[in-house]
Design goal:
disordered C terminus, 8 strands, 6-stranded antiparallel β-barrel, 1 helix, Elongation Factor Tu (Ef-tu), domain 3, two-stranded antiparallel sheet, 185 residues
């Protein structure tokens, strides 16, 4: 007699969480101590400190991240840092982006740091791993920013060079640059 397996209905097993709890697993040690002079995006360094990508570290908390959790990370060129932008205590539904015409845009169509939940996402070059310290280059985060998670950057699933860029596609001239590469075709 064949055994019947009951259906797995995970989505209804737990109520939708209206609030979530996250713990920092580390902190950013960055040369940037105030927002002016800090890159808007990690690869956009014109007009910033030294006008070049700066070195930084992420110090992972040894009480929260066991050494085996870091194993294998040293083989990646880039990592995603998911951070809590703890100095942002308010947000607006619309913002005026720093590039292009001075037009208000919906905050969710921008990369403004003042968001409903101040979550940051940064792709930084991983230079080396020493114990619980990740040595990075090219960062857009202030010193002391809490790190929620670290994930490897994987080109085959993290890069979409042909993707449309919404209202940014309408910008021309000097707005083409490292934060808005031209699309092929």
């Amino acid at each position: 007699m064949a055994r019947t397996v009951p259906p797995k209905d995970y989505v209804d097993a737990i109520p939708f969480p209206e609030t979530v709890l996250a713990q920092s697993i580390g902190r950013v040690c960055s040369p940037y101590r105030e927002r002016h002079g800090t890159p808007r995006q990690a690869v956009v360094v014109a007009g910033t400190m030294g006008a070049q990508a700066q070195s930084a570290t992420v110090e992972l908390d040894v009480t929260k991240v066991p050494p085996e959790a870091i194993g294998g990370l040293e083989g990646f060129d880039y990592v995603w840092l998911i951070t809590w932008l703890h100095l942002n205590d308010r947000w607006s539904a619309t913002v005026v982006p720093p590039r292009g015409p001075k037009v208000r845009r919906g905050v969710l169509s921008t990369r403004a740091p003042h968001r409903p939940n101040p979550i940051g996402l940064t792709a930084a070059r991983l230079v080396r791993v020493e114990g619980h310290v990740l040595h990075l280059e090219g960062i857009d985060l202030l010193d002391g920013t809490p790190v929620l998670d670290v994930k490897p950057y994987v080109p085959y699933c993290d890069a979409f060079p042909e993707a449309r860029s919404g209202w940014l596609d309408d910008l021309e001239g000097p707005l083409l640059g490292p934060d808005r590469p031209t699309r092929k075709g």
